[in-house]
Write a structure and sequence with these properties.
About 35% of the residues lie in helices and about 25% in strands. Helix 4 packs across helix 12 and helix 6 runs parallel beside helix 7. The radius of gyration is 21 Å and the shape is globular. The relative contact order is 0.15. Strands 4, 5, 8, 9, 10, 11, 12, 13 and 14 form a nine-stranded mixed beta sheet that branches. It has about 375 residues and is α/β, with parallel strands linked by helices. The chain binds adenosine-5'-triphosphate and magnesium ion.
């Protein structure tokens, strides 16, 4: 009996491109992810041909929706800019591996998401569970990478609860440039973009699946990021549509998983790791956040959430362990006051911990050779 994957590919075979070719033979499809009856993929075409392809996208969506067993479908049409739009000449710096999008240029296999012109490596900071310190880690990791001499940008992909306005004390609105492109806000030498710069913090945002995809795509592709070695993406908690969208739409070089040491958080971290592995994104390692608590009064250590759980989990799963960040009031106060420790207390022990984590992430990026993209993955 044919699997749902086969049925989806067969249905797409009946959809023709503007030149009359069956869609799977056009070299425009991303990985097709089938998860629990939900189908996600994108069609990437030349910017000049977008209009002709919009009807194909609609037909592809309808064809897949009609496949028995498919509960929902999301097909994004994305345009690949053909170089030169970001100003400076092609930017890849030699120390970073080439963008995932380069698979397209080599002509082998189905295309992966197109790279962001000018951006060397994009990494996601994620966790299955909320509130474990992803955003705090993302900011300080970005600053740590900056301190290692890399040009770094930060994308806040948490459209449900953006943190960058607060963590970086950003209250201004980004300016538009050249029509509908946005200029990111600059902080500590890093361009930063967040949906929180565009919407009122008090406005409850309801995002439906396709809106998630288009908001993220726009923040990635319609922002003047300039030339970056690394873009650090602060992910929303969980393993839902937004994460899958990122993994599919963004040529991610790797993911950093943040977990607190206790079992419950680790179960969620494991889920996060499994999700990235399913979509072929290498896990660069796990950070144990809110590890040992050093009492500011008596100086004694207390392991409030336990200690060492993430290190054991990393060993068990065979992924790198990146380091332990203590639970410390200074981190919380500085973070929440928009003054991340690596920027505002660079000589502190905490800043050194984040720089050490950043060094390991950088090594991981250099070592990562991307596996060939899969066509269909069923969860
Ligand atoms: N090592 C730490 N020591 C003390 N406080 C911390 C530490 N890491 C994070 N915090 C604090 O914990 C709270 C949650 O952190 P943060 O917002 O970074 O988590 P998150 O995982 O991004 O949350 P969400 O899932 O809501 O996006 C914040 O108040 C932050 O200042
Ligand atoms: Mg967060």
């Amino acid at each position: 009996m044919a699997s749902l994957n086969d049925d989806v590919v067969a249905a797409l075979g009946k959809v023709a491109s503007p030149d009359g070719k069956p869609l799977p033979q056009t070299d425009t499809l991303s990985d097709i992810v089938v998860t629990d009856g939900k189908v996600f993929f994108s069609i990437t075409v030349d910017a000049a041909a977008v209009q002709a392809w919009e009807a194909v996208r609609t037909r592809a969506e309808a064809a897949v929706r009609a496949v028995p067993g498919v509960k929902s479908v999301m097909v994004a049409l994305t345009a690949e800019r053909t170089g030169g739009t970001v100003g400076a000449p092609p930017p890849q710096r030699p120390q970073m591996p080439p963008g995932r999008g380069s698979a397209r240029a080599s002509g082998g296999g189905p295309p992966s998401p197109a790279g962001i012109p000018g951006v060397g490596a994009i990494i996601a900071v994620a966790s299955g569970k909320g509130g474990v310190g992803k955003s705090t880690t993302a900011v300080n990791l970005a600053l740590g990478l900056r301190d290692h001499g890399l040009k770094v940008g930060i994308l806040d992909a948490d459209i449900y609860g953006p943190s960058m306005p607060k963590l970086l004390a950003i209250r201004e609105k980004p300016q538009t440039v050249g029509g509908n492109r946005l200029k990111p806000i600059e902080r500590h030498g890093m361009p930063v973009m967040s949906i929180g710069f565009l919407i009122d913090e008090e406005t409850p945002m309801i995002w439906r699946g396709p809106m998630v995809m288009s908001a993220l795509t726009q923040m990635l592709r319609e922002v003047e990021w300039g030339t970056l070695d690394v873009m650090v993406v602060d992910m929303p908690p969980g393993t839902g549509d937004a994460q899958l969208t990122m993994a599919q739409q963004v040529p991610l070089k790797g993911a950093v998983i943040v977990s607190t040491p206790q079992d419950l958080a680790l179960i969620d971290a494991r889920r996060g790791i499994a999700m990235f592995q399913r979509v072929n994104v290498p896990v660069l390692g796990i950070v144990e956040n809110m590890s040992t608590f050093v009492c500011p009064h008596c100086g004694k250590n207390s392991d409030i959430f336990g200690h060492g759980g993430a290190r054991h989990e990393a060993e068990r799963l065979g992924v790198p362990f990146l380091g332990e960040v203590p639970l410390d009031i200074a981190i919380r106060e500085k973070s929440d006051a928009g003054m991340p420790v690596v920027a505002t207390a660079p000589d502190s022990a905490h800043a050194q911990i984040y720089r050490d984590i950043a060094a390991k992430v950088r090594e991981g990026l250099q070592a990562t050779a991307r596996p060939a993209p899969k066509i269909v993955i069923e969860a």
